[in-house]
Write a structure and sequence with these properties.
Elements: E1 14-18, E2 25-30, E3 48-50, E4 53-58, E5 72-77, E6 80-85, H1 89-95, E7 105-106, E8 112-116, E9 121-126, E10 132-133, E11 142-145, E12 150-151, E13 156-157, E14 163-166, E15 174-177, E16 183-188, E17 200-205, E18 212-216, E19 226-232, E20 241-249, E21 255-258, E22 269-270
Parallel strand pairs: 6-10
Antiparallel strand pairs: 1-2, 3-4, 4-5, 5-6, 7-8, 8-9, 9-11, 12-13, 14-15, 15-16, 16-17, 18-19, 19-20, 20-21, 20-22
Length: 279
């Protein structure tokens, strides 16, 4: 999937498919064939997939013209596709509040997909029926404001670019978010919906673009879960800046270690949207 390098030129969002053995192109899809933009950038996240197809999220762009889709969740399976567009998509497009800044997260052992972006609103949707565009978002399983949102004069959003999920966490699965200008937070999942009040927080603050998160754990064994956060120590919007790697207890969110504790652990420069990975 492709977005664009900055917003300076007309561009389109693209998904291209290739045979895994021959690498011959087998398909191509544009999000804005009759318009422009609709980039699939997702702050460095990749697309997700299950037996029903691939899932991706689309940023600002043309919406409503024949074949054009933006500010959307999309499920694609060959020529078949489904989508969700929030009813305030015009406001998102006009203000550059990309819905897709967080990318799609498929919740294991459910038929749900979660995602959100720059406004800090998270949406929980039915993967089998994303629901299209409906006034009032009544097709949504759950939505809540996971950050302070877009406030002030001039308006500044506590943007949400990354999240992580520990589905084997002791007690209940936990979703972790660390938005810019806010604290690291954990939300508990009961199998159907999330508790919209955080069950744990850490007092440390993140600058732009927030904490870039990953989880490591020995399954669901108590005491083994760690939330890793790669983050900048300066404004990272314009290019690489000094960064650090931090480790937190995945239940309490107490900090266990960070790369600034010892000079030999210095993390060097960090570029935005370069995500840590755990296997």
């Amino acid at each position: 999937a492709f977005g664009a390098l900055a917003e300076k030129y007309l561009y389109h969002g693209w998904v291209m498919a290739y045979d895994a053995h021959t690498l011959q192109q087998t398909g191509i899809f544009s999000t804005s064939p009759n318009g422009s933009r609709g980039g699939i950038w997702m702050s460095g996240h990749g697309m997700a997939s299950d037996v029903n197809g691939i899932y991706f999220m689309v940023g600002n762009g043309s919406t409503g013209q024949q074949g054009d889709i933006a500010s959307a969740f999309v499920r694609r399976n060959g020529a078949l596709w489904d989508y969700f567009i929030p009813s305030n998509y015009n406001i998102l497009n006009q203000n550059d509040w990309d819905l897709n800044a967080g990318g799609p997260l498929l919740l294991p052992n459910t038929q749900l997909v979660l995602g959100g972006g720059k406004t800090g609103a998270l949406f929980l949707l039915n993967r089998a029926k994303l629901g299209g565009l409906v006034t009032g978002n009544t097709q949504v399983v759950q939505t809540w404001q996971a950050t302070a949102g877009c406030v002030g004069t001039p308006v500044v959003c506590d943007e949400l670019h990354h999240y992580a999920y520990w589905y084997l966490a002791p007690g209940q699965p936990l979703l972790y978010v660390w938005p810019m200008n806010e604290h690291l937070k954990a939300f508990a999942f009961n199998g159907s919906t999330f508790n919209t009040t955080p069950v744990a927080k850490n007092s440390a603050m993140a600058g732009y673009p927030g904490g870039q998160l990953a989880i490591s754990a020995n399954g669901g064994t108590t005491g083994t879960g760690i939330v890793w956060a790669a983050m900048s120590t300066q404004d990272g919007s314009a290019g690489p800046v000094p960064g650090m790697l931090r480790a937190f207890d995945a239940v309490t969110l107490a900090e266990l270690w960070n790369s600034n504790m010892n000079a030999s652990d210095d993390a060097g420069l960090l570029a935005k949207f370069c995500l840590p990975r755990s296997e």
